[in-house]
Amino acid sequence: MGNIGYYIFVLVALMVAFLVVKKVASCMIKSVVLLVLIVALAVIYYLYFM
Questions:
Q1: What does the pLDDT look like over 21-30, one tens digit per residue?
Q2: For a Cys-Cys bond, which of 11, 16, 17, 29 suits 25, CB 3.0-4.6 Å?
Q3: Closest CA to 20 of 41, 7, 36, 6
Q4: What is the rounded CA–CA span in Å between residue 2 and residue 37?
Q5: Interatomic CA distance for residues 33 and 30, integer angstroms
Q6: What is the largest CA-CA distance in the chain?
Q7: More confident site: 38 or 20
Q8: What whole-number distance in Å separates Cα of residue 25 and Cα of residue 33?
Q9: Contact 41, 6 (CB under 8 A)
Q10: H or E element: which one contains 45?
């Protein structure tokens, strides 16, 4: 229950990143940025919760 702030932060970061990528980038750049975000979140999850 103590990590609710962390999850809220991750959700807000994903929404902001999605909106920025949607406004600025082409399809190829969107795919690369989304992949980088997924990898970064997976690394953060692994480091903090494993």
A1: 777 766 777 7
A2: 29
A3: 36
A4: 23
A5: 5
A6: 38
A7: 38
A8: 9
A9: no
A10: helix 27-49
